[in-house]
Amino acid sequence: MSDGLQILPVRGIGDVTAGDDLAELITNAAPWLADGDVLVVTSKIVSKAEGRLVEVPADGPERDEARDRALASETARVVARRGPTTIVQTHHGFVMAAGGIDASNVDKTHLVLLPADPDASARALRAGFAARGRDVAVIVSDTMGRAWRNGLTDVALGAAGIAALRDHRGEIDPYGNELSLTQMAVVDELSAAADLVKGKRDRVPVAVVRGYARPEADDRAGASVLIRDTASDMFSLGTAEARAEGLRDAARLPDAVAGVADQAAVDRALTLVTGVLTPGTGITAGAGTLRLTPAGAGSADLLRLGTDTHRVRVALAAEGVATVLTVDDDGVTLSLGGTA
Amino acid sequence: MSDGLQILPVRGIGDVTAGDDLAELITNAAPWLADGDVLVVTSKIVSKAEGRLVEVPADGPERDEARDRALASETARVVARRGPTTIVQTHHGFVMAAGGIDASNVDKTHLVLLPADPDASARALRAGFAARGRDVAVIVSDTMGRAWRNGLTDVALGAAGIAALRDHRGEIDPYGNELSLTQMAVVDELSAAADLVKGKRDRVPVAVVRGYARPEADDRAGASVLIRDTASDMFSLGTAEARAEGLRDAARLPDAVAGVADQAAVDRALTLVTGVLTPGTGITAGAGTLRLTPAGAGSADLLRLGTDTHRVRVALAAEGVATVLTVDDDGVTLSLGGTA
């Protein structure tokens, strides 16, 4: 049992203000810091030392307005909104409630923003320790919410001197299977471990992990490799926001056809609109087409056929079937294609 | 520096098979286990001891089919699909790729399912240690992916003898601010910490966290309190899936009005459809209504007005504006209401 890890709190750092030398403060508070240690520093004190503060009124609607302005300036895009909660992607790429802006552990006339470049902050801190003769890895951590799970955990915003991921690809288990769970976000796990000895009230903003065999570091990568790019993120938008986008897509449905429609998809689409089309609207399937005809000869029948047509087109689009619409005096023809 | 935590690997547990007494195996491997320790046990060996295995062919299409059947039986609902990846919510409520089914660290003719009730497994294990005179908390952990962040981390599926959340609500920081980050998922953080000393190749499936001041436990709650209920989850569906639902909503748009329409929302909707409506289609705003008229007197003009009408209705729905459609021989009237 001698080969485990220790997670050690660093106490006595005290209040941090703009311009403070964090490496100096931490070395003084933890003279026992040793080569090979992983230092996990709460982003809050990094932001304070770097002067990443915004002055705001202490209360009233002016405070809310100032807070909204700060959020807007930190926001690259809004991911999801519900009630008072706004989850955004920051300019760094982090997906966080309120863009990581925090009003705790700071006087009431300031808000604390995230460090502008947490990997650069981690590198600078690591260099500061190196200058004092200590070879330590540095992680800049913050608290984040998650999809699907209640409660928050600490994760890494920045890192230096340690690879963010431990890659198990190619490893073979004792049964001869290649491992399928391949890349562990170890800097996030180290941040979580450090939080277990930290105090949320800023009294212990730093912890040291001792005894961890760091994966090979590429200092240029840092923790930013943990940011999933939006295109490959299956959850890049909130459910409600994505659903509203689907409605907007429906409103602006383009006339485009590519590939060949899948009959099962067409059948699912027609089942979907069963019961919402005008009684008497005719639908006849041809070769790669659907022909829609009105319930009667009146103007209202033609108008209704028009709304039915767009319902059918949208239902097909939901199944990935694109359509081209041709209108004549007796009805409409939809040519069916591939991916909408 | 004496008040930190230790994370200790438990080695020498060896192969676990159905019917094994895990408390016995772990006590033998870690005779140094002490009161107050938090034991983090990889769900894989819990599943094996509980016989949660499915027999499958070692290879070929039959193996894939058997795997699909196992996934279907573990799945409560599909959350997102892309390429070979299927993320589902299991019957327990966990959102996991492949429903947590794993083929590693088991012979090629079996798949390992998650424990049927990980909180119950944790309680049973804790009772097993209590019977051997050790008062320890037990966490059953597994590896999960996350939205927005690359890499995996270990989290808690089950827990006993420890509260899953540490609640900071009501605490005041040194500046007099009430803390806003309130509930930390400490059993997830303990699971992540334990993973740092575990081996992915099953050689170290158990770790002990020593020195952690456990939050008050309510044994009935367990780790299941960390499962966010779908209704309050802003990311209950994948973005592509939610967008497709939006399209389906558009196809089945109901005739219903509640509340009063917001003029700004109506304006946004009309801006959205600019350029996709038939040239000449007239839109006139009245009191709580929109009147749409055809570009000309022909049948095709009426049909086109019908499709335009549904585009406008869907654009309004995307902005939360519900509509009731009234058709007459000269055009259509949309009565505008509140939340669609």
UniProtKB/TrEMBL annotation, chains A, B:
Pfam families, sorted: F420_ligase (PF01996)
GO function terms (MF aspect): coenzyme F420-0:L-glutamate ligase activity; GTP binding; metal ion binding
Membrane-spanning ranges: none
SUPFAM superfamilies (alphabetical): CofE-like
Signal peptide: none
Residue ranges annotated for the Coenzyme F420:L-glutamate ligase-like domain, each copy included: 14-211
Coiled-coil regions listed: none
Keyword terms, alphabetized: GTP-binding, Ligase, Magnesium, Manganese, Metal-binding, Nucleotide-binding, Potassium
Protein name: F420-dependent oxidoreductase
